[in-house]
Amino acid sequence: MSILNALILVCVLYVVFLFAVAFAADRAALRGRGSWLRSPYVYTLSLSIYCTAWTFYGAVGFAARSGLEFVTIYLGPTLVMIGWWWTLRKMVRVGRSQRITSIADLISSRYGKSNLLAVFVTVLAVIGATPYIALQLQSVTLSFAAFAETDPEATTLPDMQSTALWVAMGLTVFTILFGTRNLDANERHHGVVMAIAVEAVVKLFALLAVGVFVVWGLSGGVAETLARIEASEISRFEVTGSRWVGLTMLSAMAFLCLPRMFQVMVVENEDEDHLRTAAWAFPTYLMLMSLFVVPIAAVGLDLMPSGANPDLFVLTLPLMDGRDGLAILSFLGGFSSATSMVIVAAIALSTMVSNHMVMPIWLHLSGGAAVVSGDVRHVALLARRLSIAGIVFLGYLYFRLSGSGTALAAIGLISFVGVAQFLPSLMGGLFWRGATRTGALAGLGLGFVVWLYCLFLPSFGPSVVLPQAVFDNGLWGIGWLRPRALFGAEGMDPVMHALMWSMLLNTGAFVLCSLLSFPQPIERLQGAQFVNVFEHSPTPGGWAGGMAQSEDLLIMSQRILGAREAQALFERAARRQGLVGYLPEPSPDFLQELERVLSGSVGAATAHAMIGQIVGGAAVSVEDLMAVADETAQIMEYSSQLEAKSQELARTARQLRQANEKLTQISVQKDGFLSQISHELRTPMTSIRAFSEILRDTGDLTPEEQSKYASIIHDEAVRLTRLLDDLLDLSVLENGQVVLNSQTGLLSDLLDRAERAAGVQGGDLRVERDRAAEAVALTTDLDRLAQVFINLIANARKYCDGRPPVLTIRTRQSGGYLVIDFTDNGSGIPPEKQAVIFEKFSRIGETKAGGAGLGLAICREIMTRLGGSVSYLPGQAGAAFRVSLPVANRMAAQ
Amino acid sequence: MGNKVLLIEDEPNIIEAVSFILSRDGWEVKTHSNGHDAMQAVRERAPDLIILDVMLPGKSGFDILQEIRGDTEFADTPVLMLTARGQSKDREMAERAGASQYMTKPFSNADVLAAVRALVTP
Amino acid sequence: MSPERAPVFLARRSYRRRRLADAARLLPIAGAVLFCIPLLWRGADGAIGTNGVMFYIFGLWIALSVISGVISRHLRASESEAAPPVAEEA
Known about the structure:
A: Sodium/glucose cotransporter; 5 domains; five-stranded mixed sheet; B: alpha/beta; Rossmann fold; five-stranded parallel sheet; 5 strands; 20% strand; globular
């Protein structure tokens, strides 16, 4: 088997292996298992897509040409990483709290969700990434070619462009398969990240293996290798200060701004704390990646024939020594570097293209009708897939057009300067509240134009895009507009020249326009949220999958619904899903139900927002929501207290009104007291006087008449006496001077006595009693109690207008009290009179013989003395009075 | 001049006493003992004099007096009011309502006779 | 929490944490300066050897990684700075 065929086989097997890794990781993530997926080391390894094929092959070439200068490309990211407390921490926090999906999204969100800005950043990113993707394709094809050259069986060299096409198609398929499997709100791709982490290990291992082979295998030891370096053309450290500092800065800026770096660093970040590990692990990784670069370059320069491409030393040195296995490993390392970069870059760029360009246009064209119909998802995925294919194809196109002459490192630097244009807007947006959309647009625009004119277009060489005349005499013949000597800056390194002018003009325009322009309200709002992100959303923490959301939802619901109700709701939902415990899966059905329940308490909009925030993990943190929930609960409690208070107030007012009415009525009665007592006294006295005068003055009275008139006088005198007795009695009772005589007797006997005394016999009132219930022994002042009973029975006799009149006496014991109800079948007492019947001189009818209106007043006084009560029972068939008396009646101490 | 007297009063003993005194003086005394249909009784009997108690079951004496005065046929019929509440307020009310004379219980029989004679004779 | 209830060691700890955050901020600046030191070196013939610079750069690189690891171990990203003084945040 030829080495080329073996290489293809290894490639295919390796790709299949990556598929398996990505697939397994995706499945594990979907099932909520696999906490190793969220390991900080996986995060750190995924950052290694910074090290592309450019690094793997190009770093050695870079070192072979310029010595140690190559290391600046890694020093920049190292400084950014160990300075994570400054910038990365804030970027990751903002990215997570604002649910940022790409760097274009971040910049447009910061500047008032401006889609124009997003489109601009997207276009710039695509233009900047295209040469870089071409670079990866080139490195893979070059490495294929390197193998083919050593293969004696290969009759013809493989067509480089068809190799590139195959690689491009394979990468597209892989990216589409794992990059667009799910349209996750958080844009996380566990499978892809895992595959990249594996590739990171492979490339590090491969480069270290080649390094070890070169140092100890080819050179024969460390000392010998150092001697070779000393002897080589790169033995002197001859870097210019500007390039050393400039390239370090450039790589640091690119590390922050590259869309693919943003994707793995911010978007795919599972937990902010992973930065802590990456802070030391990633610099270590970069250090290891660069460790053997200079030795390999020096040994390659020494051993390889002159004219050999130093970019391929990593591959050609083992091949030269006949180490095919090591060469294949090295090839896999380069292959890994290239594929991982293309995959992540394609995902990041396709997200930007579809979110900020395709979707807005499509939504605009479809008139927004699709938002409700639900096929947005499908369209978004399709847009994503087409974008991936488009971006990879664009890279392939660049590769075909540009030929393959340019050194790898040069293409990389051009790309770096392009994406570095994002930096002023990005950092300004994160740290300066005064940054505005106008400033960002102006800075980005100017920087982009300068980069295009001074670096990107000239990179194709004179007369390809820019005519030679422009290089020599500047645009329109204006000398200080020469692309390599802008504003007369002669003799500078082209990359440094472009970097300096583009960044200066970019930053200047950004700051100046920000100062001069006035931000829209949403820009100011977003600006505050971004710059003060640590004050606004403390600790979003890692979303530990569905159950954590359920728990958050439960905690929140408890605060709103109350613990018991919320737990019952969650438990019910969990049982419906066939789960045990309180935490159901946050399925759409359950969320809908919860939202409905919550909206009953806090209103529909708030409930929707709260659930959306927890489930979607959006701008507001869970703690913020808890605060809102607590506040809402407090408000609800407060308002219910208010309601109770106002009810209490209404009740008090009603009582006051009643008391006032009663007072008025009593006052009217008091006012009429004299006339009442006058009337009650004068009426019998009138009869007495009239008849005594008749007896005195009339001589011819028959004996019958005499006797009749005398008995009238007598009766009226008795009536007067009784009235006076009652008045006296009441006065004694009211003043509390009564003396009670305790006796023991049966209730039934007492009622019999009262019935007789009230004159029921011979009258037409029928009394219905339940003698069995009345067999109760009482120890109290029986005479006084009888007085009450007599009064009540006599009242019924006098006032009951039932036909025939019936009085029902019912006795029962309740709550330590003996309760005796006297209910007649008459028309009862009208409600307005019920309040005053126990007052003195109140009578239901105006006058009726015998009643002075003192009876019930006396009854009430007596019952109070006996420790019980007498009251009117409203709502009965007729007039109903209830007498209640303590059963174990110990007489009220007097 | 007629001699028909209508006594509207609810106390049976007082009715008996007044009837006795007036009958013996030659008056034709009719009695009525409640307020509800007192006006009806007035129309039926068409008395020359009405003796009216203030406190009557069903209707106050003042109300009945107003009805009597409201009827053109009895607008000039003398009305002697009897009351057991000896307050000046009641007297004023009676005079305003159009009572011819006002007497407070208990009264002497001679006073009643004199008042009746004085009211009917002129 | 009211000031009088805050235990003393807590204040000490948050003080220590703030100084650690200062160190974390200073580390990249110090690193950047130190990485530029070789530019100042001059050998006998006007330039110095790659080997020496290589040892310096990689030695510094390892040292920075270790220090960064030590600082990061004690700084939690998710911990919010408890009411940082304005001067420190600026």
